[in-house]
Amino acid sequence: MSSRFKLTEQSLEKLKEQKVPDEILNKLRTLLGQSSIDEEKFVEILKLTIGDGDTELYKSLILSNSQTNGFWEFIKKWGGPVAVAIILLILIWILWEFSGKKLDLSKQSPEEHQITIPGRIIFVLIGMIIPVFVVWFLFLFTGRITPQRMYQMVLFCYLFTIISLLGSVLPFIIFPSIPILPQLMIKSPIGILNGCIEDKQPNNEGQVKQVETANQRLPQELICSKSNGQWVVNIGGTISSEDKQKVFESFENKDQKLRDLWPLLRIQGGLVVPLYFIVLSLMGAAVSMTRRVPEYQGRIRNGEDDEITEWKAREMLVFQIMQVVSAPLIAVTAYYLIDPSSRTTTVILGFSSGFASETILLLIRSLVNKIRPESISLPKPKKNKDALVNQMKGKEKTKAELSEVGEKLSAELEELKKQIPEPGDKIKAKEAELEKNKREFDEIQKEIENLTNQLLET
How far is the C-alpha of 328 from the C-alpha of 349, rounded, in Å? Predict the structure, then answer.
């Protein structure tokens, strides 16, 4: 590939070291951020920016410090996306191969019980989306904020909302397509099952009796004696040995249909919540986030009383993502705290607990802030007055020296202008030297003012 040229901050630093005047550097600074181009176009842009005369004078210096390798430019521009695409393809292949394996915890693998093609496709999509969103989140919500990154944050939040709505329903559709899933769910401490809460237990004589005191504290719609079961989320509950055996026998039966692989299971202990209740809470949280994100986007530096900075907007967007993630936890707590008595109340409570998850988290945060102990402020160390005075004297001496040098440079510059009517390299170099002297003088002046304030504090 032919050589290409592009100005960078490093290029300007090198040109400054090679005594290129600040006036030229300031004009060249307007070219920062442009993509690399060939030599002919680059020289044309230089002529338009700094003029024909200065271009001819500094052309070789600028070109030597702006040359880039076309191959590495290509790698810098497209290397990241290509690497991500390769990783995603590898991940897709691994997930596809894994989903096609014959897994069976009972050491038998009937051909009829493998994951179906639609199930494998959805399984791969879910397995691919999660790591992509995690990496994208870490990239966007860390580091410095640019307008482009702010735009991508808002885009991420909109996509996250859509994924949340789909994710509250889509994963459960593939359950019948994964025959091995019932065996995994009954062995896992957290799982989704077709079940109910066991409200009977054997007494010492081996007879089964109903536990009345426990019934009064359990959700009535989930008790086995009062319902025919439903899809539930089981957190920490256990399954009886008889029901576990029932699942394994269903899997071993080659004539068994996929829909019959999820028998009704009796759950003992733990937290059991209806699946539709969790789905409604996720939907409520997603709707709440959809309402908030455009509001925050419109308030970013809008010049009104309610305007927010990019840093504050990022903090608020992260909080919106966290309220969606925490919605199921809030819903489980609300379900057992309120104990809804009817299906209508349960539906309203499920959606409301998700929709109001932001308010609930803000309330929890305010309560935690109130009970947090105040930080102990350590006394500031006293400053040494004598040391400050000595520093002040040194700075004043340097200031006087710079002032003397500046006056000398000004006189020399005036003399040069009288001798040489047209601006030349000597005059430009002397002007650059004088400008540097003025900057150093201003810096020393600021340091003296700072030391004066410190002396006043002591």
Answer: 12
Which of 125, 143, 173 is at the close of a domain? Answer: 173
User: Vertex 148, ends 145 and 153: CA angle to 5°?
Assistant: 70
Residues 112 and 168 grouped into a single domain: yes
Stretch among 152-161, 168-177, 192-201, 407-416 having the lowest mean pLDDT: 168-177
Mean residue pLDDT across the chain: 76
Q: Which of 281, 310, 276 is nearest to 296 (CA)?
A: 310
What confidence tier does 112 reach under pLDDT thresholds 50, 70, 90? very low
Domain of 150?
92-173
| CA nearest neighbour of 109 among 156, 52, 179 | 179
Last residue of one domain, picked from the residues 142, 173, 204 = 173
Residue 27 amino acid letter: K
Tell me the residue type at 313.
A
Residues 114 and 155 in one domain: yes
Residue at 20 is within a domain: yes
Residue 104: per-residue pLDDT: 45
Q: Cβ-count burial of 140 within 10 angstroms (0-12 exposed, 13-18 middle, 19+ buried)?
A: buried
Number of domains in the chain: 3
Q: Are 35 and 42 in contact (CB under 8 A)?
A: no
In a domain, 194, yes or no: no
**Tens digits of per-residue pLDDT, 114-130?**
556 666 676 677 777 78
Q: What is the DSSP letter of 223?
A: B
Return the ∠ at Cα 322 (arms to 320 and 327), rounded to 5°.
100
Name all contacts of 89-93 with Cβ < 8 Å and 24+ positions apart: 91/127, 91/128, 91/131, 92/124, 92/128
Q: How far apart are CA 173 and CA 259, in angstroms?
A: 12
> How far is C-alpha 203 from the geometric centre of its chain's CA atoms?
54
Q: Per-residue DSSP letters for 147-202? A: HHHHHHHHHHHHHHHHHHHHHTTHHHHTGGG-TTHHHHHHHSSEEEEEEEE--EEE
**What value does the mean pLDDT take over residues 246-265?**
65
pTM value?
0.56
Distance, CA of 121 to chain centre: 27
Confidence of residue 399 (pLDDT cuts 50, 70, 90): confident
In a domain, 305, yes or no: no
